[in-house]
Write a structure and sequence with these properties.
It is a single chain. By secondary structure, the protein is α+β, with helices and mostly antiparallel strands. The protein has a single domain, classed as PAS domain (Beta-Lactamase, 2-Layer Sandwich). Helix content is about 45%, strand content about 20%. Strands 1, 2, 3, 4, 5 and 6 form a six-stranded antiparallel beta sheet that branches. A hairpin with a 5-residue loop joins strand 1 and strand 2.
């Protein structure tokens, strides 16, 4: 069970990092409710099983292996063929995340789930890279413990023509983080 006081303090702190033009318009109670909703669907057996399977499959990866996979992913975003991207987008977890996104009435711009190394396990949309382990969204969620949360700054997304904020939370099993989820939220819908 997450400590609601700790989450409230994290919401307040994270909101203070958002650009001033939008931070005052974000509703901390709405963000807290969204975090709770995300935690619910991100704890589904489909999500947990996919992360655990990939954690097992990737247990022996070195940093060089991870860098190689990330390089491959980035190249595949530029030109086909794209077996690595297709494998992730075509799995059951990605189908589940796409349904969650579609059911959020435009609130979610993207969803992706990472394993314990920060590698994508499933996603609603193609990300620019495969390895998130070197980014705050992973380090300050998975890397900060089972009750952690990371909110990015509010940024304008050219592709969707909306202001987005990324919320990242660890995904736990038995009280310990096994992976993380990042959800791109439409910041204007949070006002």
């Amino acid at each position: 069970m997450r400590n609601p006081w700790r989450l409230a303090a994290l919401f307040t702190l994270a909101l203070s990092w958002a650009p001033a033009s939008h931070a005052q318009n974000l509703n901390p109670d709405r963000i807290k409710d969204l975090a709770s909703t995300i935690q619910q669907w991100a704890s589904a057996p489909t999500v947990v099983a996919a992360i655990k399977a990939q954690n097992t499959d990737h247990a022996g990866l070195s940093q060089a292996d991870i860098d190689g996979l990330d390089t491959q992913w980035r190249a595949e975003t530029e030109a086909p063929p794209s077996p690595l991207i297709d494998g992730v987008l075509g799995n059951d977890l990605s189908a589940y995340l796409s349904k969650v996104k579609d059911g959020a009435d435009g609130l979610y711009a993207e969803i992706f789930v990472m394993d314990n190394k920060g590698l994508n396990v499933g996603q609603s949309d193609v990300t620019s890279d495969y390895w998130q382990g070197d980014e705050a969204k992973f380090q300050q969620s998975f890397g900060a413990g089972p009750d952690a949360m990371h909110l990015s700054d509010v940024e304008f997304d050219e592709s969707s023509q909306t202001y987005l904020i990324q919320m990242s939370l660890p995904i736990n099993d038995g009280g310990a983080p096994i992976g993380a989820v990042t959800v791109g939220l439409n910041a204007e819908a949070l006002q």
